[in-house]
Design a protein that fits this description.
Layout lengths: L7 E6 L2 H9 L8 E4 L7 E4 L1 H4 L9 H7 L4 E3 L3 H18 L3 E5 L2 E5 L10 H16 L3 E6 L2 H10 L5 E3 L2 H10 L10 H9 L5 H5 L3 H8 L2 H8 L17 E11 L2 H22 L1 E2 L2 E8 L4 E7 L6 H12 L9 E9 L2 E2 L14
Parallel strand pairs: 2-4, 7-8
Antiparallel strand pairs: 1-6, 1-7, 2-3, 5-6, 9-13, 10-14, 11-12, 11-13
The structure holds magnesium ion (MG).
Length: about 350
């Protein structure tokens, strides 16, 4: 490998919340399990592999999850337990490098090009990290090893759970060409659908499109897609991201046209946001409701308090902001909620640097 090539790991715990629950309660082992709210109102925060076989996924409304898998066991989240495990894995990472960029409680990028043991092979580091995590927490992690973040993340997902996969520079081209578009990080369900309509199903298809064409279709993201189709991703592993805001949003396949649907969906997004906030150990003073219409026009409405918002305040303000959204009947394709003016109790802990996508 040339000296310019980086060694990047992406370590991702397997069904993290659900695995912690199964570890701590033997009765839950081997069973379909959802961590999250109640059947009626809540959202699935995490699903065990047994539950995933039935199509249960995180961020799915619990009522739908229950329909897919009637024997599903719902467990309330225990964030203290997850944070504890998260701290333990973070300590393992830091034995090797300080260039650790957490994406959430249970996954992080590590730049091990230079590392504290002067180990030559990133694969050896990944093997050790997986073993140490297992020893310390009793949980399994999947490791992806490559020369940039995009490929490392794809590699960690490749043979989950307990996965281990390397994408070398000589492999990457073939690997990306075969990759279904849904597997590209940053391509959500709705974008994937749009790509399908443009005849893009795999990396090969994506690579055939010009940068100009992709930008025209997907805006700023077009350039990103153009580059990753070629295995190019120069984003650095950044350990110093400080969260200023935290949000949750959803894009809908079919536009929402009634206020009742808006309320229902805002309630779901609020629940997800509230969980993320408690997960982060922080809180914000402002709440913004973002709405994108079917024609991609976007409007936002915000409210700022002098104190940090409580969960209850977030719920009521979100619905209050909805009152200021005109022309719902025109059709709404995206709803987002974001807290900003974010403050955290302890700037040291890695748990705060959360970023979620779904
Ligand atoms: Mg995970």
């Amino acid at each position: 490998m040339s000296e310019n090539i980086r060694k990047i790991l992406h370590i991702d715990m397997d069904a993290f919340y659900a695995s912690v629950e199964q570890r701590d309660n033997p009765e839950l082992r081997g069973k379909p399990l959802a961590v999250g709210g109640s059947k009626e109102r809540g959202v699935v925060a995490a699903a065990s592999y047994e539950a995933r076989k039935y199509g249960v996924k995180s961020a799915m409304p619990s009522s739908i999850a229950y329909r897919k898998c009637p024997q599903l066991i719902f467990v309330k989240p225990r964030f203290d337990a997850y944070k504890e495990a998260s701290k333990q894995i973070r300590e393992v990472f830091e034995e090797y490098t300080d260039l650790v960029e957490p994406l959430s409680l249970d996954e992080a990028y590590l730049d091990v090009t230079e590392n504290k043991f002067d180990m030559e092979f990133a694969m050896d580091i990944a093997t050790e990290i997986k073993q140490k995590i297992k020893d310390k927490t009793g949980l399994t992690a999947s490791a992806g090893i490559s020369y940039n973040k995009f490929l490392a993340k794809i590699a960690s997902d490749y043979n989950k759970p307990d996965g281990f996969y390397v994408i070398t520079p000589s492999m990457s081209e073939k690997f990306i060409e075969k990759l279904p578009i849904e597997k590209f990080f940053g391509v959500g369900k709705v974008t994937a659908k749009k790509m399908h309509l443009k005849g893009i199903f795999t990396g090969t298809n994506l690579k055939r499109k010009s940068e100009q064409q992709l930008t025209q279709w997907f805006g700023k993201a077009g350039k990103y897609y153009y580059n990753i189709a070629r295995g190019i991703d120069n984003r650095v592993v950044n350990p110093n991201r400080i969260r200023k805001s935290l949000g949750a949003e959803r894009t809908y396949e079919h536009d929402i046209t009634t206020k009742e649907e808006m309320i229902e969906n805002i309630n779901l997004i609020t629940e997800i946001l509230v969980k993320r906030i408690s997960n982060s150990g922080g809180a914000g003073k402002s709440l913004t409701l973002k709405v994108k219409y079917g024609d991609f026009k976007q409007i936002t409405r915000s409210k700022t308090l002098t104190e940090l918002l409580s969960n209850q305040q977030i719920k009521s303000i979100a619905l209050h902001l909805l009152e200021a959204i005109p022309n719902i009947e025109k059709g709404i394709r995206l709803i987002g909620l974001q807290t900003s003016n974010f403050e955290q109790e302890n700037k040291d802990v890695f748990l705060e640097q959360l970023e979620f996508e779904f």
